[in-house]
Amino acid sequence: MVVHVSHHPPRHSSPARAIACSVIRATLLYMASAPPPLSIRLGSDGLTALDEIARRRGIGRAEAVRQAIAETSRRDRGRIGLLAEAQRLMEDSSYLEEVRQVASLIQELLGRRWSDSPP
């Protein structure tokens, strides 16, 4: 948000008018720096889902869209991080050896369990 502070004395006839002009200027400066609006077309299913999110959260449609986009972005970043971690582990020979040892131990334990049980 851009805030413009003027050091010039006010030229307004009343304090109320000065405040109103100040509010209008701050609003216009803020709006001028905001990104342009985005227009999307939702099918009936999308609109129903959006209304459901907005209703459950007690927010408007625009805020529901903003939140959904932010949440999806965070989730995608998390998935990308998990994928990178899995790829790194698959390239780590000591990790793979440990996985093989654990799998072998599990098979051995399961084999004992099944052979110790009565038929």
Structure report:
The chain starts with 14 loop residues before the first helix and ends with a helix. The protein is 73% helix and 0% strand. The protein is elongated and about 85 Å long. The chain has 119 residues and is mostly helical. α2 crosses α3. It has two domains: 34 residues; 76 residues. It contains four helices and no strands.
Q: What is the helix/strand order?
A: HHHH
Share of helix among residues?
over 70%
Backbone structural class: mainly alpha
Shape: elongated
CA-CA gap between termini: 76 Å
Topology diagram in text:
Elements (H helix, E strand, L loop, with lengths): L14 H19 L10 H14 L3 H30 L2 H24 L3
Helix pairs in contact: 2-3
List keywords for this structure.
119 residues; mainly alpha; 0% strand; elongated; disordered N terminus
Short account of what is shown:
This protein has 119 residues and is mainly alpha-helical.
